[in-house]
Amino acid sequence: MSSDERRLLIKGGTCVNVDHKFEADVYCQxxxxxxxxIDLKVPEGTRVIDANGKFVIPGGIDPHTHFQLPFxxxxxxxxxxxxxxxxxxxxxxxIIDFVIPGKGTSLLDAYERWRGWADxxxxxxxxxxxxxxxxxxxxAREMEILTKEKxxxxxxxxxxxxxxxxxxxxxxxxxxxxxxxxxxxxxVHAENGDLIVEGAKxxxxxxxxxxxxxxxxxxxxxEGEATHRAIVIANQVNCPLYxxxxxxxxxxxxxxxxxxxxxxxxxxxxxxxxGTDGTNYWHKCWRHAxxxxxxxxxxPDSSTPGYLMDLLANDDLQVTGxxxxxxxxxxxxxxxxxxxxxxxxxxxxxxxxSVIWEKGVHSGKMDPCRFVxxxxxxxxxxFNIYPQKGVIAVGSDADLVVWxxxxxxxxxxxxxxxxVDFNIFEGMICHGVPLVTISQGRVVYxxxxxxxxxxxxxxxxxxxxxxxxxxxxxxxDKIPRYEKVEREPYTGPIVQLPAS
Length: 500
Ligand code: URQ
Ligand code: ZN
Ligand code: ZN
Hints:
The chain is α/β, with parallel strands linked by helices. Helix content is 31%, strand content 22%. The chain has 16 helices and 19 strands. The chain has helices spanning 80-89, 107-119, 137-149, 169-182, 193-205, 211-216, 220-236, 249-260, 271-275, 286-290, 304-313, 329-332, 352-361, 368-382, 467-470, 473-478; strands at 7-16, 21-29, 32-37, 47-50, 55-58, 60-65, 70-71, 74-75, 92-99, 125-131, 154-158, 185-189, 241-243, 265-270, 319-321, 400-410, 429-439, 442-446, 449-450. The strands form three sheets. Strands 1, 2, 3, 4, 5, 16, 17, 18 and 19 form a nine-stranded mixed sheet that branches. Helix 3 runs parallel beside helix 4. It is globular, with a radius of gyration of 23 Å. The relative contact order is 0.17. One zinc ion (ZN) is lined by residues 64, 66, 244-245, 323.
């Protein structure tokens, strides 16, 4: 692409960073933000984007996707091309996906396999978390290589999906110790996997095979208990913790209480949990109900989405993602007679920003600066790619969105850019519309028209020891937590035990 086309002036907008809003033009060249100011003079041939009366925000960062995940006997239908296509159409310019090795297999081999899938397809920048689905010396060794040589600074442990991804408390303890030593963030899928198995048996014995059984077998206390347990285990090893897809009052309250007592824990809400709820599992249409099946389930308490948004507004929850892991109707139908076989996962990557603007900013719960924090900046800080990403600043990547906070759009599978044939937000009207998405200084989406290049996204390495995460952790290690009591030896009587 000629250098002229890589010269871009976003003119007349209201720029929004996490700390303030300001009127300014933004000049970008060759993928970076070069100048920010009023009435900028720019070189001939610069492409001008009119942002008058609109916001200019940092491109969204979605820290939780599963594109083309092989899962429950099939493969998620949004692959790295369709998934990142949907992302940029919705104003997201970076995603962080998950490498998930099978139990007993190499984390490094899985990382290389996932890189092969993604690099040739992504339309925007991306990175990978890596899942730890088993424990042993090899895992520790490979975690070190991934952290020091592959730019991975986050590892996810599943407390659910028994016999598939699930690790037990002892394995999680050792994985947390390793994360802490490496300066990597420990992430958890927090549900009690043993209770889920028993709960599912109970449902099926009662003849409850439909999607309603999916929620009833794992009610929110099953998520809340595991969330609390993960926070305690992480705190015992002084390891920072990130709880993915917080779906309930119980889990979010465990995080809020953990933070209040000084634990270093971050909570991630997802678009699905903020924009819809678990009453859909009781819908009479099986395909509709199955379309909402994900883990942890959406909650039937219809006040939950508003509650989670309130917590995001006041920083009791910190980040939003989507957990985008999509399956068509014929794939969901693998579980038509048994809900435990319905591939778990829903959409979100295209609609996250509009759903959160509608439910968070248009509702008056938060301002545009907080919106930018929870959709971009905080994720950049947590995953240690700030200020390269997540801010409108000179020298930062030119990942930007011209955002119309007043316009509305109606969400539908008939118009979305996903590969999947279903949208959990079908028919929802949202204030907050991306007009222009700019990725690496290129216009990739312009008033409904995509201009993407398959494979042009970059893998973004993420250094260890993010100060936003580890800022106080290392100091805590210097403070003695345990001290021995010096005392005279005991010389009294000792009971004689039978010689067994
Ligand atoms: O559990 C996850 O995050 C992955 C396997 C996606 N599926 C889901 O239901 N959340
Ligand atoms: Zn999960
Ligand atoms: Zn997930």
